[in-house]
Each structure stands twice: as structure tokens, then as C-alpha cells.
Write a structure and sequence with these properties.
Blueprint (H helix, E strand, L loop, with lengths): L1 H22 L17 E4 L5 E10 L2 E5 L2
Antiparallel strand pairs: 1-2, 2-3
Length: about 70
């Protein structure tokens, strides 16, 4: 009789767990696609100006930046 009760309780707990996990999903981001912003490099000049873009290369004292 005891094994039967343990089995019934285990089935009840698993049923409640499955119901809760369906009702309250752990990760809502999977259901709603989000736009990701491109990662930009930040270059701060001596005068305080800021340039946002993608640093391509630096050679011979010249910094090449791709921006929009």
C-alpha cells in the first residue's frame, strides 16, 4: 500500500511540475525575437570628440574606421 501511495504522490508532483513549466516558461526571450544592436568601437579624440564605428586597422599613424 505504501509503494502505491508513493507512486500516486510522485505522479501528482510530476503533473504539477509539467503544468507549471508550460504555464510559466523559464525563458521568454525564445518566444519573442529581439533585434541585436551592432557592437561599435568607440574612439575618443584629444579634443573630447567621440567617434563610433568599426576600427578596420591602424598603420603608419592612421586609424581607419568604418561608420554609417
Amino acid at each position: 500500500m505504501r509503494q502505491f501511495m508513493v507512486t500516486v504522490v510522485l505522479i501528482a508532483v510530476l503533473s504539477v511540475t509539467a503544468t507549471v513549466s508550460v504555464a510559466f516558461p523559464a525563458d521568454d526571450s525564445a518566444s519573442a525575437p529581439q533585434a541585436t544592436a551592432p557592437v561599435l568601437d568607440v574612439v575618443t579624440l584629444k579634443d573630447g570628440s567621440i567617434i563610433y564605428g568599426e576600427v578596420i586597422e591602424m598603420s603608419g599613424g592612421l586609424l581607419q574606421i568604418k561608420n554609417s
